[in-house]
Amino acid sequence: MHFTQKDILDMASLSAEEITHILDTAQGMKEISLRPVKKVPTLRGKTLILFFHEASTRTKTSFDIAGKRLSADVIALAKSGSSMAKGESLLDTVKTLEAMHPDVVVMRHGTSGAAQYIAGHLKSPVINAGDGKHAHPTQALLDMMTIRERKGRLAGLKVAIIGDIAHSRVARSNMEGLIRMGAEVRVAGPPTMIPKGVEEVYGVKVFSAVEGALEGADVVMMLRIQKERMENILFASEREYARTFGLSTGRLALAHPDALVLHPGPMNRGVEITDEVADGHHSVILDQVENGVALRMALFYLLAGGMRHADED
Amino acid sequence: MQMKIENGHVLDPGNMDGIRDIWIHDGRIAAVTEPGECRDRADEIFDATGLVVTPGLIDMHVHLREPGQEYKETIETGCRAAVRGGFTAVCCMPNTRPVNDHAGVTAWIIAQAKKAGLARVYPVAAISRGLEGSQLNEYADLKSAGAIALSDDGMPVNSGQMMRRAMEYAKAFDLFLISHCEDLSLVAGGVMNEGETATRLGLGGIPNISEYLMVQREIGLAEWTGSRIHIAHVSTRESVQAIREAKARGVQVTAETAPHYFSLTDEAVGRYNTAAKMNPPLRSEADRRAIIDGLADGTLDCIATDHAPHASMEKNVPFDEAPNGIIGLETSLGLSLKLVHDGFLSLKDLIRVMSKNPARILGFTNDLTPGALADLTLMDTAAFWEVDPSAFASLSRNTPFGGWQLHGQAVATIVEGRVVFRK
Ligand SMILES: [Zn+2]
Fold first, then answer.
1. Which of B266, B306, B375, B380 is catalytic?
2. Is the confidence at residue B338, as pLDDT, over 70?
3. B216 beta partners
4. Distance in Å, CA B132 to ligand 1 centroid
5. What domains appear along chain B, each with residue ranges and CATH number?
């Protein structure tokens, strides 16, 4: 398949065929990370810019490692860096980036639509590493890769996404991607965290009680609770949240006996997920991290790598 | 100097509806006669055959940006946009820099408008000092300087007590308040209508209830104090219903909406289109239909544009960061005439909501009768034209209607007997 997308901005703009192609490519990349010398020359001489306008050690490290395993020059720009001074407009940022002639720009930004805005003004491919509450496509893709690896398929699976759907870009991208691939998606959380029209927009089923969503689920995806949202009066206390909406061993028993448990991290242990579940045999949370590198290698390769196989010099 | 506007379809709801000649002398209407009936000499003859001649259109809600942000609009460019849109008068909101909360600013605005010599400008002064919602302004001074009403537009008056006292105090000077209705605690950082599009885009939503709750408060306060209140830019079906019920029980409430609320829904935001970002935000289809119903049954008294100029660089940013507002003076009549062409309003009702009612609310008559000031709009209701923002007289270009095909437009605008715009 010839991959023709310029950018990876959200899951809505990827077809099922393109998603499958990305996941297949990522599966092939995974093996590189298991070699004693974890490096191939595929992107030698290419420049990848990681522009994180919002702090995120995990995602940034994952992109960084992915770029380096393909021998690219990876340059990280932080918001606090001199040229990205506070008060500079995003358009000025784009011009600065353009002048560096990057082969791929990875961007995280606190504003919904920021990645699309950058991509619309930039010649080089843009990968959205999270924009506001809108999209986090690489997370959704690595989640899908992890599920497919374990279950052998995505179509027909019952996936429960639990927690703060309204403020989660991870949830939005997973809903879009999983539905596109034929999964059945249920969401649950306190009504303060369920956005208006979510059923109509994504085609998911909303449950007000977590138990209903968990019933027979093949996959349970827990979302991180933003403790600072306490101030936004979205829930009363961590204690009550844990008791009512958290994933415990007892509650997980409602799901399919072979259910997978995912979490985008970092986890609030004891709040949205108990230690037993996070570290238990249903958990594939570390697989997600591992697959994240392979998935991001695949995207770099597809967007900047030309058409050569990863092992060719 | 005598001017004759001949053979136009003179439509002045309540006074006249037919083909007439209008004679203008010294800035006033001298006579309205049957075509050809009067053979007096005219220094200037305006052939209005095929055109509709109406009392001048009045836009009760515009932002002229001067003083303070002349790069977006000046009083002169705003007035030029107004007369091109068929407006003979506009009310300008006080959120300038400095704020129009002082008689000196009010008088200066009026002087600038006189200098421009285009549309009439009626300044709306601020309810509170610096639009901060905590201290009353000198309404007596503002009134004598020429303020026509009071509003903290854009900055909702949060305190019910402040609003109550402002209503009571304004009564002493026969001024009325215009309320921008928004409960900021319910807006909570929202940037577009709360609904499916906001959910899809991951943007913060502004729920209908944030407007409706304040509309209810203002109605309650007006009823309680026996004052008059005008609700600015109504956008929700719940607000329309609340105003309808209040009017039915005799509350002195009037209300306006803007062309974008009956022309667009929140789907116009599309993929973060900042030209569709305004406050209140574009709502759902059900709201859009309720706005049209409200205009048709008289619940909404007038169409105002909330003309809000912004420089293109200010709008060329991510959606969250873009300022609210679109310009409207040059598209208002064309968009509003669509309601007539689509059969929702009669042309007579449209003239009421764009001309007669605003005048009534502002406290003057706007009639095509002998002795009246000759403020007139001549429109070609059949003309098809395409909206080209680059050709606007306004200094700004922020409109979501670029490229739209509209049906009907102003072809001449006459203020006090002077042709201030002619196509
Ligand atoms: Zn307003």
1. B306
2. yes
3. none
4. 15
5. 2-52+371-422 (2.30.40.10), 56-362 (3.20.20.140)
